Automatic annotation (TrEMBL):
Signal peptide bounds: none
MF annotations from Gene Ontology: transition metal ion binding; transmembrane transporter activity
Residue ranges of domain CzcB-like C-terminal circularly permuted SH3-like in the record: 400-459
Keywords, sorted A to Z: Ion transport, Signal, Transport
GO biological process, alphabetically ordered: copper ion export; plasma membrane copper ion transport
Family according to the record: Belongs to the membrane fusion protein (MFP) (TC 8.A.1) family.
Protein name according to UniProt: Efflux RND transporter periplasmic adaptor subunit
Domain CusB-like barrel-sandwich hybrid: 186-312
Entries under NCBIfam families matching the protein: RND_mfp (TIGR01730)
InterPro entries: Beta-barrel_RND_2 (IPR058792), BSH_CusB (IPR058790), CzcB_C (IPR058649), MFP_Cation_Efflux (IPR051909), RND_pump_MFP (IPR006143)
Domain CusB-like beta-barrel: start-end pairs: 317-390
Gene3D superfamilies associated with the record: 2.40.30.170, 2.40.420.20, 2.40.50.100
Amino acid sequence: MSRAPWVVAAFATLGVAGAGGFVSAWPNLWPAQTSGIITPAAAEVGRTVIYYQDPDGRPFYSLTPKKTADGREFRPVRAGQDLSFEPAADVPATEPAPAARAASRRVLYYRNPMGLPDTSPVPKKDSMGMDYIAVHEGDDDGDGGAIRLTPGRIQRTGVKTEPAALRVIRTVIRAPGTIQLDERRIAVISLRTEGWVQKVEDVTTGSRVRKGQPLMEIYSPAISAAAADYAAQMPMPGEVRSDIRATPGPGRGSRQRLMNLDVPEAVITTIERTRVAPLTIAWAAPRDGIVLERNAIEGTRVQPGDVLFRLADISLVWTLIDVAERDLGSLRTGLPVTVRARGHPGRAFDGRIAVIYPQINRETRTVRLRIELPNADAALLPEMYVDAEVDIGSQQPVPAIPESAVIDSGSRQVVFVDRGDGRFEPREVKLGARGGGYVEIRGGVAVDEPVVIAATFLIDAESNLRAALRGFTEAGARP
């Protein structure tokens, strides 16, 4: 083989200028000693560093050399190494390369590489030295406002889709509340006449009592007189008389007087059996419950109406909660409610809405609900703080999509529907109930249509940018 071609090739590769350079390069012109390949490392040396990026790829940048907190150097990014929006996949031999396709189309304008609404009719660089991106004919998708993204762009931005499907939306209203006593299960013990407390049993505030359990002994002149009169009307042993309770006369009146003085029925029955009027009257608990208040003290004088004991049955309690006025339309009596007490973590109490109070709080714009809760073990105590969950959702499945798919501007709600081939179409939708991370779709998207559930705001920003740039170009094209 002739040496002339190698000489020419070496001269072209090495770029030797002048006889001195040619002579000095002559020993390297033979094939075994010639190296005309430029390595990537050698190519990087000749390129300008644009900025420096965090070595872990996190979104931290610097215009000057910098180190991380653990002492590692930031990675230099040279010209041409910054983000590229072209797909990195290999192009088949039968299809033109992206650069060839772009070169065959007319450049409309150049847009800012950071997504800012800034365009240029000629190539230019931004303040960081990044080249503006060329926008060619056909890049703007005019298919019904759909936006087209390359596969590489979709992968880098983390776009994810999920089809709309029929789901049961569980909507829950959460509100704090307090435990209150059932007003129907409170009893007060007081006298209807003047008297004295003769004795008080070993019962204090907070004690649990059973129905019929003795609480105190009372002496009252009026009660003693009525009891003596009634005992005198009782028949002697062996004497046959009609039931005095059913016969009008003095006996009937004496019994009625004892009943008017609120003497316990057990005491009246004892007088009928023994024909003896007791000096003191034993007063018993009228119901099961706890002693909320004890004012009876031995030896004290009692006036009519003085409260001696106050009892409450807590086997059934109320929970009072306040919910927002906007939720009033979805509430009704009988809805199930789950209550969790802060004093009993991990335990849930089930109840139902018993009453929706017919009044709105004018300061807080809330409505009060009363929930009845069984409390057999007395775990719930009055004034205890609780958290309630009212289940207002329907058990019927409805078309639903994840809440992350919806872009809500306040006046309209939009989702992006994946139409395949990298096309995403914005759709205005009508929303319904929300719950469990999903939202009901009442119009705009059909079941099984895939919608974007991740990176929706990035696609929305790209769509707005395309629309703005399209408006700029249209305005610039007008005469």
